[in-house]
From TrEMBL:
Binds either 1 Fe or Ni cation per monomer. Iron-binding promotes an acireductone dioxygenase reaction producing 2-keto-4-methylthiobutyrate, while nickel-binding promotes an acireductone dioxygenase reaction producing 3-(methylsulfanyl)propanoate. It comes from the Eukaryota. This is Acireductone dioxygenase. HAMAP family: Salvage_MtnD_euk. SUPFAM superfamilies: RmlC-like cupins. Pathway: Amino-acid biosynthesis; L-methionine biosynthesis via salvage pathway; L-methionine from S-methyl-5-thio-alpha-D-ribose 1-phosphate: step 5/6. Its EC number is 1.13.11.54, 1.13.11.53. Its main location: membrane. It catalyses: 1,2-dihydroxy-5-(methylsulfanyl)pent-1-en-3-one + O2 = 3-(methylsulfanyl)propanoate + CO + formate + 2 H(+); 1,2-dihydroxy-5-(methylsulfanyl)pent-1-en-3-one + O2 = 4-methylsulfanyl-2-oxobutanoate + formate + 2 H(+). It is a peripheral membrane protein. Pfam families: ARD.
Length: 180
């Protein structure tokens, strides 16, 4: 996405948008599933993902001006570039919004989340979140064990999760070179 200080809720595609494949997201450690948001309470695929990855905690979050106190400040906070020591798992049930992640060249990649999209961001990846111009999203948040909400704002190059993430990117790169 283009670097732009305009309204963060706009797509920011630029004049010559570059679309990113699912493979490129996977190379960054971002995992993606398309699920049925109308059946999330009884979705066997979601249950298999939760069981295989150990996600024992789940809650739902409605983000919109009518349901969040100090909405603009919270949205600004979510849009501050940061990392987490754990995975960030989000499943869009209603509405839409953007997760931005940094690629290997430190450029932003914008992921537009719509109903049914589920992503997992690896620990240590720089990212941020914002709603789009619809100003509404309902997300399922999943965690292993008790939820941890701690965000570490950039720069965090010495954080153990960041170091491990960079190491994993290097290993992915080395395997790709060996495959050629």
């Amino acid at each position: 996405m283009e670097e732009n200080v305009e309204d963060q809720r706009l797509p920011h595609k630029g004049n010559a948008p570059e679309y990113v494949s699912m493979d490129k997201l996977a190379d960054l450690g971002v995992l993606y599933w398309k699920l049925n948001p109308n059946n999330y309470e009884n979705d066997e695929e979601l249950n298999k993902i939760r069981e295989s990855r150990g996600y024992s905690y789940m809650d739902l979050l409605d983000l919109c001006p009518e349901k969040v106190d100090d909405y603009e400040a919270k949205l600004k906070n979510f849009f501050t570039e940061h990392i987490h020591a754990d995975e960030e798992i989000r499943y869009c049930l209603e509405g839409s919004g953007y997760f931005d992640v940094r690629d290997k060249d430190d450029r932003w990649v914008r992921i537009w989340m719509k109903p049914g999209d589920m992503i997992i961001l690896p620990p240590g990846i720089y990212h941020r979140f914002t709603l789009d111009t619809n100003n509404y999203i309902k997300l399922m948040r999943l965690f292993i064990g008790e939820p941890v909400w701690t965000a570490y704002n950039r720069p965090q190059e010495e954080h153990p999760a960041r170091k491990e993430y960079l190491k994993s990117l290097k290993e992915i790169n080395e395997r790709a070179v060996e495959a050629h």
